[in-house]
């Protein structure tokens, strides 16, 4: 079985990373290799790390409300770099009405408050073909 590489990123000025760290641990516990970029990363830094680390998926977490701009920017940069095969997913405080726009930008799933770590793990296993 392939060990999947997942990058977890916190774009923008949002300094709250409890949820991102929780998901990173859950993915690691499920046997995935996790790269956590830390807080206050630019979309360019996150995309560059994703390409450099040759990840299978990128998960973004945001609570600040700038998800439409920052998530979209990461997706756009990855596309420009020819890395649009990387599975994108996101989570955080994201209004229901913004989810379809993010999915149109290439995000396979958006997890909102109340989603379980198990849901995220199962989503990735399904998307990545386990």
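Q: What amino acid sequence fits the structure above?
A:
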């Amino acid at each position: 079985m392939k060990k999947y590489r997942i990058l977890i990123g916190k774009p923008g000025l949002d300094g709250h990373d409890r949820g991102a760290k929780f998901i990173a641990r859950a993915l690691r516990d499920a046997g995935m290799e996790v790269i956590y970029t830390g807080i206050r990363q630019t979309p360019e830094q996150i995309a560059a790390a994703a390409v450099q680390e040759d990840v299978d998926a990128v998960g973004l977490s945001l609570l600040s409300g700038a998800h439409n701009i920052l998530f979209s920017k990461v997706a756009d940069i990855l596309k420009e770099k020819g890395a649009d095969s990387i599975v994108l997913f996101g989570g955080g405080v994201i209004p229901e009405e913004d989810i379809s726009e993010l999915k149109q930008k290439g995000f396979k799933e958006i997890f909102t408050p109340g989603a379980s770590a198990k849901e995220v793990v199962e989503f990735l296993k399904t998307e990545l073909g386990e």
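Q: And what stands out in the fold?
A: DSSP finds five helices and five strands in the chain.
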